[in-house]
Amino acid sequence: MGQEKYVYDFDESSDGGKELLGGKGVGLAEMTGLGVPVPAGFTVTTDACRAYMANGKALPGGLEREVEEHLAALEERTGKRFGDDEDPLLVSVRSGAAVSMPGMMDTILNLGLNDEAVEGLARQTENPRFARDSYRRLVQMYGEVVDGIDAHRFEQALSDLKRERNASQDVDLTAEDLAELVETFKRIYRDETGTDFPQDAREQLARAVRAVFDSWETPRAQVYRRAHGIPDDLGTAVNVVQMVFGNKGDDSGTGVAFTRDPATGESGLYGEFLPNAQGEDVVAGIRTPQPLERMEKVMPDAFEQLIDTMRRLEEHYRDVQDIEFTVEDQRLYLLQTRSAKRTAAAAVKAAVAMVDESLISKEERRSSRWRRRVSTRPRARRPGRSCSTRTRPRSAGGRGRASSSSGGRRPPTTSTA
Hints:
By secondary structure, the chain is α+β, with helices and mostly antiparallel strands. It has two domains: 153 residues, Dna Ligase, domain 1, CATH 3.30.1490; 152 residues, D-amino Acid Aminotransferase, Chain A, domain 1 (2-Layer Sandwich). The longest helix is centred in the middle third of the chain and has 19 residues.
């Protein structure tokens, strides 16, 4: 009997589905297969998580070797090296269970940066501000997620610096300001953990993978599973994804979108966009997101591609999709797609419309698959969030047209696990 396989590239075939690759991993693999623009990467399977738990939180034999092999393939594909000081390959790590639930580990972005690599990234991109902004985000996310440092310590340091510099938003801080903030964050990390922030990229990645596995056993996740009848032995997958950067400047950004209004079910694209930002900024309430019509004006090519891609995904999945995306230097990348939560009224309207559009049958409209997507509790509005946008479907004559939705409706609650 051969060695068990624990890691799959996004373009590698697997018969395990969500139970093996988790919801995010399956989505990334399917989008890759469809030719949708997705960053390269790989998934560490739920089998590895279960083996880790069964082994007393020791990584199963062969896993580290497989991760190294897939990292080497990712380096070959991107032309960059993980841990390189001059032109580093950076990755994100995201949890991805088969069933989305609260309590799972949050995303860590920009893994692979250190004191030397941040300067190499600044030289390669000729953008020191972007490089230092990425590094301060890594130190904060890593400290919070892997080492359990109170987020308030980092947030207070950022607020203090903005006040000293009379900066109203994070984007108003200069490269020099962010270099100072990195040092402050590293001091916080050292004060809280008793050690310096890890400079070895592979140590960063290994500890992040373990943190994802450990998050499966958090009390909050356990309580949620018991309340919803989810088996404890499912485990979670880990997605390691090449970084794409929405925080490189005004030609970059990040956003979330729905293929139909999740509050009403009306056809069209609905969501928000934040220029010069990374994904966590959209839900953190730090800056006010903009309606997607703004993206059409400042990034028309990426906007056009987003509309086409969302249409393709809805036709493929035959369901309303909830999508996360990033634009780097005017180039679109999809980070996640999943069936969208929606209100009861929206579920009925969307199902009827999709029958009329021949996307689903009348029998599918009545199926439990559609009823399970219903959410009657609207998402709480975060301070400073903008009204969302509905973008009407493409007409035969050209690009979709965006218009602000009325009433500032929020999408139904979804989990980010």
